[in-house]
Amino acid sequence: MKPNTYKPTQDEINSALWAACDSFRGTLDSSDYKNYILNFMFLKYLSDVWKDKYDEYRKQLGDNDQLIRRKMSRERFVLPDNCTFDYIVKKKHDDDLGGLINKIMEKIEDENKSKMDGVFKDIDFNSDRLGNTKDRNRRLKNLIDDFDKPVLNFRPSVIGSEDIIGNAYMYLIERFAGGAGKKGGEFFTPHEISVLLARLMMPKAGDRICDPTCGSGSLLITVAEQVPFKEGTHLRNCSLYGQDSNGTTWALAKMNMFLHGMDAAQIEWGDTINQPQLIEDDHLMKFDVVVANPPFSLDKWGFEQAAHDTYKRFHRGIPPRTKGDYAFILHMVETAVEGTGKAGVIVPHGVLFRGGSERQIRESLIKDNFLEAVIGLPANLFFGTGIPAAILIFNKGKKTKDVLFIDASKEFESGKKQNRLRESNIVKIVDTYKAFLKGKGEVEKYAHRSTQKEIKENDYNLNIPRYVDSFEKEEEVDIVAVQKEIDALEKELADVKKQMAKYLKELDFK
User: Fold this and answer.
1) For the domain 10-179, what is the CATH code?
2) CA proximity to 83, closest of 54, 120, 109
3) Residues pairing with 389 in the sheet
4) Within 10 A of 97 (CB to CB), how many other CB atoms are there?
5) What is the spatial distance between Cα 26 and Cα 408, in angstroms, rounded to a whole number?
6) 3-state SS string over 59-71?
7) pLDDT tens-place string over residues 312-352
8) Which SS3 state, helix, strand or coil, does residue 175 take?
9) Does the pLDDT value for residue 7 go beyond 90?
10) Which pLDDT score, from 0 to 100, does residue 495 have?
C-alpha cells in the first residue's frame, strides 16, 4: 500500500475548519460555538502529534512497547490510553458521546497539569445547549466526521510545518471575531494592527514580552514572531507572559500558545488591574516589551481600590471612575523595565485630550520623558466599533525629549464592513518611527517631531491635529469657466425643451 502523500495547503485546511462550523450554525451564536470548534481542533492536534511521535518511535524501537511508552512519557504532552481522536471516531455512535468527549478532555488535562491545567474547564460537550441527547449526538458525530478527513490531518509528518496549524487557529479566531461584532474585539486584535505594533516594538532576542490584556493571545504571538529563533531550534528566543480576565478567552490563549510551539508562555487568568497575577518576589514582574489592546474606556475598572493599590501604580493620578484607559496604561508603564523597557498600547482618541486626572497623568508621563510616539489610525479598523484609535508608545530608555506625532488616519484600504491597513501603510508608519529614532521624523502633512515645550504650550493636549497639519487645500474654482459651463447647459436644456414641445404637439395633432 502506497503511503499517503497528500499534503493539504493552508487555504484547504482553513476552508475545511470553517466548514466544520456548520455542525453548530443555527444552534448557537458564533461567539459560543467558536469554543467547541477551537477546543476540538486542539484535541485533534494533540492526538495527531501524539500519533506521529508514537509511529516514529515504533519505527526506531520495533515492538518494544515498554520502551516506546517510556519515550512517549518525555514528550511535550502525554495522552492517556483511549484519549485520542481515533478512539473518539471508534466511539462516535456512543449514546453518551458528549460525556465521552468531556471525560477524555479531563484525563488529558489531568495528565498534563503543568501546561494544560484549566484549558478545557469552560467547555461542555454534553451541554443541553447543543440540543437534546439525540440532536446533540448527531451534531457531535457530524463534527467528528468533519475532522476525520485527510485535509484535517495535523500530523507534522504530513503537513510539514506546525506553523500551518497555528495559522489555521488564528484564521478561525479572526473569522469568529469578525462575526461576533463588539464581542469580537474582546478576544482578537486585527492581524494588521498586531503586525504594526509588533514592528514598532522591535523586540530583541532574549526579551521578556508581556500582554496584560492578552485575549486569545494573537497580539502576543505576533510580537514574539519578530524575534529570531534560538539557534538550532524552532523556538523563539524570548519569554512570553500574558493575563486575561475572561476564563474562556484565557483558555483560548493557552491553546494558541501551544499550537504555535510556545508552550513555555506563562498565561494567567485574572483581572490585571485588580488582581495582577504576574508577580515576582512580591513585586510586579518587569518586561522588556509590554503591548496591549485593552478594552476601550472600561467602566467599573476598579476605581474604588486604586488609591490603595498594593503596587503603587497610580502615583501619577487616579483615572476617572468610568474610564479605565489610563489604568491599563499606567500598569504597562510600571511593568516596563526601568531604563530600557518599552510599552505600546492601542487607545481611543479621548485618551489624548480628556481633562481632569487624565490630563494630570499625561503631564506626568511627558515630564518623565516616557512618551515617545502618538500614532493616529484610520477609523473602522476594529471589530464592533467604527471609532478611530491611536497607538501610544512609551520608552523608558528614550534618547531624546521630543515626541513623534503621526497622522496615518487617511491611508488604508476600504472595506464594506471594516477597513484594513495595507502592507505599504504599515511600512510607512514604521519607517517614519525609525527615522524619528535617528533624529529625523518630519513628513509634511503626515508626521511631526514635537518638543516638550510645544506640548506644554498645548496644555498637554495630545490631539494629533494640533501637531500635524494634514489639511488638504481644495483646488481653486474658476468661477468664469463654471459660469460658462452653466450657460451652455442651460442653452442645451432650453433646446431640448423646445424639441419636446414640438414632439408633443405633433402627437396631439395625430
Assistant:
1) 1.20.1260.30
2) 109
3) 348
4) 23
5) 40
6) HHHCCCHHHHHHH
7) 999 999 999 999 999 999 999 999 999 999 999 999 999 99
8) helix
9) no
10) 80
Q: State the pLDDT confidence band at 223, using cuts at 50, 70 and 90.
A: very high
* DSSP state for residue 438 in the 8-state scheme: T
Backbone Cα Rg of the chain: 29
Average pLDDT, the chain: 91
In contact, 84 and 113? CB cutoff 8 Å = no
Q: Would strands 283-284 and 289-292 be described as parallel, antiparallel, or unpaired? A: unpaired
Give every CB contact of residue 211 below 8 A, 6+ residues apart in sequence: 217, 219, 220, 223, 241, 242, 243, 290, 291, 292
Per-residue b/e over 163-190, b at no fewer than 16 CB within 10 Å? ebbbbbbbbbbbbbbbebeebbbbbbbb
Residue 420: all three cell numbers together: 484594513
| pLDDT surpasses 80 at 266 | yes
This prediction has a pTM of 0.88
pLDDT of residue 287: 98
Q: How many CA atoms lie within 13 A of 292 on its CB side?
A: 31
The whole-angstrom separation of Cα 310 and Cα 308 is 6
**Residue 284 DSSP SS3:** strand
Residue 8, all three cell numbers: 493539504
Which residue in the block uniquely carries the three cell numbers 439525540? 134
- The answer on pLDDT for 373 being more than 60 is yes
- Residue 410, C-alpha cell as written in the block: 487617511
Report residue 361 CA to chain centroid gap: 27
Residue labelled with grid coordinates 515617545: 372
Range from 23-37, 305-319, 489-503 that averages highest in pLDDT: 305-319
Strands (E) located in 317-409: 342-348, 371-376, 389-395, 403-407
Q: 50 in helix, strand or coil?
A: helix
Helices (H), 75-204: 85-90, 97-111, 113-116, 133-147, 156-159, 163-179, 191-201
Architecture, CATH, for domain 182-466? 3-Layer(aba) Sandwich (3.40)
- Closest to 338 (Cα-Cα) out of 375, 310, 368, 373: 368
Q: Which residue has the cell 491611508?
A: 411
How confident is the model at residue 56, as a pLDDT?
A: 93
Q: What is the pLDDT of residues 53-104, one digit of tens each?
A: 999 999 999 989 899 999 999 999 999 999 999 999 999 999 999 999 999 9
Say what the pLDDT of residue 15 is.
Answer: 95
Taking residues 176-187, what's their average pLDDT?
Answer: 61
42 burial via Cβ count (<10 Å: 0-12, 13-18, 19+): buried
Burial of 441 (0-12, 13-18, 19+ CB in 10 A): buried
Identify any residues that bridge with 345 across adjacent strands, giving them in sequence order: 292, 392
**CA-based nearest residue to 324, from 307, 344, 308, 303:** 303
